[in-house]
Amino acid sequence: MGTNQAVNAGQTATFTAAASGTPTPTVQWQFSTDGGATFQNVAGATTLTVPNVAAGQNGTKFRAVFTNTSGSATTTAATMTVNDAPTVTTNPSSQSASAGSTATFTAAANGNPTPTVQWQQTTDGGATFTNIAGATSTTLSFMALASQNGNQYRAVFTNTVGSATTTAATLTVASTMLQSSLNPSMFGQSVTFTATISGQNPTGIVTFTSGALTLCTAVALTANVATCATTALPVGSDSVTAAYSGDANNAASQSPAFTQTVNVKTTTVSLVVAPDHIALGQPVTITATVAGDPPSGTVTFTDNGNVLPCSPVTLVPGATSSTAVCTTVPSGTGTHSIAAIYSGDGSFAGATSSVVALVVGADATPAPTPDRWALLMLVGLLGATAFVRLRRL
Fold first, then answer.
1. Rounded CA separation 322/315 (Å)
2. How many CB atoms lie within 10 A of CB 130?
3. 136-146 pLDDT, tens per residue?
4. What angle do CA 347, 349, 352 make, to 5 degrees?
5. How big is the chain by its Cα radius of gyration, in Å?
6. How far is CA 186 from CA 5, 237, 262, 296, in A?
């Protein structure tokens, strides 16, 4: 008859069976991992030893089949229970909550036997933790108070084999919550920040800042909400906060910092080559215009992919764009492919213009291009003159 065994993970399980018969029967051990529906043979003598058992072997069944020339007999199956210490599968996540709202932390762990849980908190930055009375569920929920701002919470899972502790999660309690209408955004793009004030019908004003930069000041509340639309944020990760002034019934407060990501703005480069048909040795003026508010930086001009000697040219800012001018004398006749490459700056991304064709002729003084209508008029004039001469004859 098989006897059930309970062992800790990593230990050795031993099963023993015996049978009588003439002639003396042989023994074949078998195991099942599907609750006894099917069994497979395993090597072993009268005593079966299973070394270094793993948690995944929990619930495995073992039995012995005795056989001689007269027949066979099978023992009842014995179940192996593998106990293992808790392993954390879900750590609680840090969160922000407004004063008076519900804060919720969740944790989970595996283990056999099923571990119990005890939540703990610290008010000194993690130096010491104390148990929270009655907090013995995998979910911890409570009403957040302003005094709990910065507290940390963790869960300790325990069973007969050992214990495991989650990482600590931080609670940020604020009566001012801040949101952005767009994140990430591009430089120069309008972003609207919304500050929501919790409390007893709060009145007063809200000021929005990013470091030393004031975005919006003295914004009045409308139904607990203040909004700030701004294009002033520089490129990078901007830390934005909203400060509430408070009123007779509600204390002043400041929101947790909100990180607004501002990316460089894309731009375009337009190119003008004047004149676009010249004789060899004649100078040409190339003008690049970079769209923006305006952008700064330099422009590199190229001729058939080769950098022109005037490069790089520093942009000259205008009202809504910046320009760079290069005057050069192209070498060699034929068609030259002219392009401009903008370097970009801290706020605008680099860009390259479309290619403009410049035709350089061999003549020192290029022949003027005849105008079609002028030719027609000349032909007409010659014809009229000939007609008058014939009449006179």
1. 6
2. 9
3. 999 999 998 87
4. 145
5. 42
6. 66, 12, 5, 16
How far apart (Å, rounded) are the C-alpha atoms in residues 284 and 26?
105
Contact 200, 250 (CB under 8 A): yes
Rounded CA gap, 253 and 206, in Å?
10
Provide the 3-class DSSP secondary structure of residue 338.
Answer: strand
Question: Cα(78)–Cα(42) distance, rounded to whole angstroms?
Answer: 14
Q: Phi/psi at 367 (nearest 5 deg)?
A: -70, 140
Per-residue pLDDT, 329? 96
Listed residue (82, 79, 84) closest to 32, CA to CA = 79
What phi and psi, each to the nearest 5 degrees, are found at residue 361?
Answer: -95, 170
Q: What is the distance between the alpha carbons of residues 36 and 44, in angstroms, rounded to a whole number? A: 19
Helix or strand run (H / E) with residue 300 = strand 298-303
Which domains, and CATH codes, for the chain?
5-83 (2.60.40.10), 91-174 (2.60.40.10), 177-263 (2.60.40.10), 269-361 (2.60.40.10)
Residue 318 DSSP SS3? coil
Write down the pTM of the prediction: 0.51
**3 state SS for 82-95:** EEEEEEEEECCCCE
- Residue 142 has φ and ψ, to the nearest 5°, of -160, 165
Give the span between the Cα atoms of 29 and 321, in whole angstroms. Answer: 86
Report the alpha-carbon distance of residue 7 to residue 160 in Å, rounded.
Answer: 11
Q: pLDDT, tens digit, for every residue of 58-116?
A: 999 999 999 999 999 999 999 999 999 999 999 999 987 777 778 999 999 999 999 99
> What is the residue-wise DSSP string for 6-31?
EEETTS-EEEE-----SSPPEEEEEE
